[in-house]
Structures are given as C-alpha cells and as structure tokens.
User: What shape does this take?
Amino acid sequence: MEREIEEIEMILKKYGQEHLLKHYNTLDDNHKKELINQIKNIDFALIENLYKNTKKEEKNNEDEITPIDYLDKYKLNDQYKYYENIGKKAIKEGKLAAVTMAGGQGTRLGHNGPKGTYDIGLDSHKSLFELLCDSLKEEGKKYGVTIPWFIMTSRENNKETIKFFEKNKYFGYQKDKNLFFFIQGELPMIDTEGKILVNEDGLIKLAADGHGGIYESLVKSGMTEKMKNIGIEWVFIGGVDNCLVKMVDPVLMGVAIDKKVTVACKSVVKANPHEKVGVFCKRNGKPNVIEYSEITNEMAEATDEQGELLYGESHILCNLFSVDAVERMGANPLPYHVAYKKAKYLDQNGKIVESDSPNAYKFEAFLFDAFGKVDEMAVLRVKREEEFAPVKNADAAGVDCPKTARDLYKKFYNLDK
Assistant: This one.
C-alpha cells in the first residue's frame, strides 16, 4: 500500500494536485480505498487540458451552418405505411432496445430522490419510471415481444433507483434478463486555479459527464456487448423526464432502415422562431445541432418557400441509433463543454467553502456532438402534443413543468374527466 501511495504522490506532484491526499490520514479504511481508486481512475492530462481550455478566448465561429432535410411524420402519405411495415418487422424480430437516461436527481422539482421516481401528479400517482415502463410494455404487447430496457443511473442515485425498482417488483420486467442498469461516467470538478475539488467527506468531488457520455458508458459497462448477444441491432435513447416519450416507433425505425442511416432523430417544430432550443442543422456539411445562442436573428426567422422555418426542427433528445454506431461513438470521448457552477467543497485547510455565485468548473459532453461522426442521418418531425411533455422545472416556472406535462399526458390518453 505504501508503494502505491508513493506512486500516486508522484503523479499528483507532476500535475500539481498534491492536495488530494491532504486529508487522507483522517479517513477510515473504506474511504481511503475509495479515494485511492478515484485518483487512479482520473485522466490528469485530460483534466489539465480541460482547465487550459477554460482560459482560451472563444474564436469567431467560422463553421458553415446550413439547414437539414427532414420528413414530417404526418405528411408521409403512402410512405407512412411503407416505413411503418419495415419498422414493425424489425421490432417483431426483437431488434430494438430502449435506453433511458436517468442519472439526475429531482432537486429542481423539490423532490428528494432520483428524478425517475417523481410523481407528476396524475390520479394514478405513477412515477416517471412507471409511466415510461407502461408505454414500453404496451408497445411490446403489440409486437409479441418484450422490449429490453437499459437504464443509465449515476453514482449518486444508482442504489436508490435499483431499490425503487425492487420495491415495485421491477414493474413486471426481469432484472438482468430484460432490464439492465448501468452507471453514467463522471469527471472531477475543478476550481478557477485548476485544482481538483475535494468533497466534505474527503473524497474527490465528481460530476456527471453530460448526456454525451452515454455512448462511452454503454460501451465501457458492457451493455452494447449484451445488446448484441441478445440480437439487438437498434437502440432508442431518450431522457427519463419526458412522460410522453415514444420509445417504440416503427415509422422512425422504418425510415432509418430504408434510408440506410445509422442515426434517426425526432424533432418538433419550434413554438416560435426564438424559442430557446437547440435545432438540427448541417455544420460544415455534417449533421449537427446548433444551440439557440449560436443562431442569429436572421437565421432564426428565415423561412423556405412554404413558410416553414429553415432552422425550426428542435432536438428533443429522442434518438435512434444502430448498436454499431453507438460502439463507434463510444470508442473515444466526445469534446467536453465547460459549465461554470456553484460548488461546495473542502479547502486545503479542511474548511468548507460555499459560494453564492459560480466558483468551479464542471465538464459535460453533449450527445449531439457525435452526430458529426456520421455522413447522413434522418430527422422525423413529430407532434409536440403527442411525444414531448418534459418535466424539467417546478410548477412556478409555468413551462416544461409537472402541470404542463400532466395536462399533455391526460389529454393524449383521454384521462380528462
């Protein structure tokens, strides 16, 4: 153990992170082991590089942004049945799995627990997890299959999530047969001097690496290998907070298979030209999503000959990938984006540091940054009121909140009395 500590001390000295062992001798044996494992798993060269990037001035973006083609699901006419039949065949053959990204907590909703355990206020009092599960089971019945369900948790909520499923008898699924849990990747948070933060418990302060970490997490956890072993060729990836998410969509699958693309995404048309959402586009000729902050007013308001917005297809985190594409995308980390956040941590003198304003950096990858790795992908416009009812904010916000999601859900399923 002493030899191991010496080697770690050398690494920490090389990168100026010696403070990580400052409180080592005050920890119990279990925490000592955990801290050593944390340090061994850190890519210090990556962290150093990410810190350097926080100091770089953003260059003028010279990317060429152009509109992307899309299909409107409800204007396909005769092609609708054609695509639907192709997708139905693949689903019946057991080629589809669903992945739900559920690493977040329900803090913003005033909920103490994993976001997926949140009750949006329906008469049934079903959690977000159960609502999604109901939809999956209902679709599975149509095709005579059970859709395998993969749930990405976080280190923070993994145990609690699994305990919740155990308590509810896995909502009719079978753990490790058609229900699988895996944990999202994390990166250390750093202060404005590039020092890795230490939590109040003396361990390293880690933060989830963003939804772009999904590919690497699926590969590293062995989930893509598991998918291939049970005959899965396509995987739908969506978030836990959209209670109307349609994870099993034969039309989307049919479009992807027919057009021989490895990525097919759903969009909803922007509510107005200046809605603050990312929209699909081509960036330097490759599929991409452009953030609302990158779009000029002129681009946001531009329309085609039919009066449709040229940049009007919102990315709603409803994406279908071939398993092969997920493996390719997970082979190397995506670029990380920096976020300046408030953080509570332990300083080198053992004092707790708290701040009313941002004081630390966290790093996240965005799922859509991987889109540029494919030459083409399909975008299918769907109806917002049928497939997009996110629960992101407390009711006081009045938008994307439990009330708006509940109203959309009840209207779609005719639950209004």
